[in-house]
Amino acid sequence: MDAGTDTRDPWTPAAGVQAADRRPCDLVTVPARQGLEAVDILRRGAEPAVGPVLLVGRCDTLGFLVPPGTADRWDVPGSACTTAGRRPGGAPAVAGTGWLLPPGDGGPVTDPARLRAALDEAARLIAAADRRR
């Protein structure tokens, strides 16, 4: 992980995160390249719209916390959405993860519609960049 990455246990609340922030959530996972582009897109908007984001494994996957129920209707190619249980502090530990954006640094969770749009835009940007190589 790079020097700007928070490496504490991913389910330990950041300073200032209250017990009320332990609501249920789902987790959308995407390849890191597409996920990092999506984070940039979401943060550039008129209203920054990205919640906590996990770096998973060897930093080859990103996980976006999204509202519960998202997994029931998520169908974005190249990604997966699973029920994660409770937000930091109440969810089971996930080995080999760290925070890219810890709880408290972003919004409560990422809106699934905005995430879908950002992932679509990120895929188009990546495809265009790859064609130029």
Give the overall pLDDT as a whole number: 78
Q: Kindly estimate the percentage of residues that lie in beta strands according to DSSP.
A: 15-25%
Strand order of the largest sheet: 4-1-3-2-5
From the N-terminal CA to the C-terminal CA, the straight-line distance is 27 Å
Helix % is 10-25%
Biased composition (Low complexity): 83-98
Region (Disordered): 83-109
Question: How are the SSEs ordered, and which strands pair?
Answer:
Layout: E1 24-31, H1 32-44, E2 53-56, E3 61-66, E4 80-86, E5 97-101, H2 112-131
Antiparallel strand pairs: 1-3, 1-4, 2-3, 2-5
Summarize the structure in words.
- A hairpin with a 4-residue loop joins strand 2 and strand 3 (61-66).
- The model is unreliable at 1-20 (pLDDT under 50).
- The chain has 133 residues and is an alpha+beta fold.
- Strands 4-1-3-2-5 form a 5-stranded antiparallel beta sheet.
- Helix 1 (32-44) packs across helix 2.
- Helices cover 25% and strands 23% of the residues.
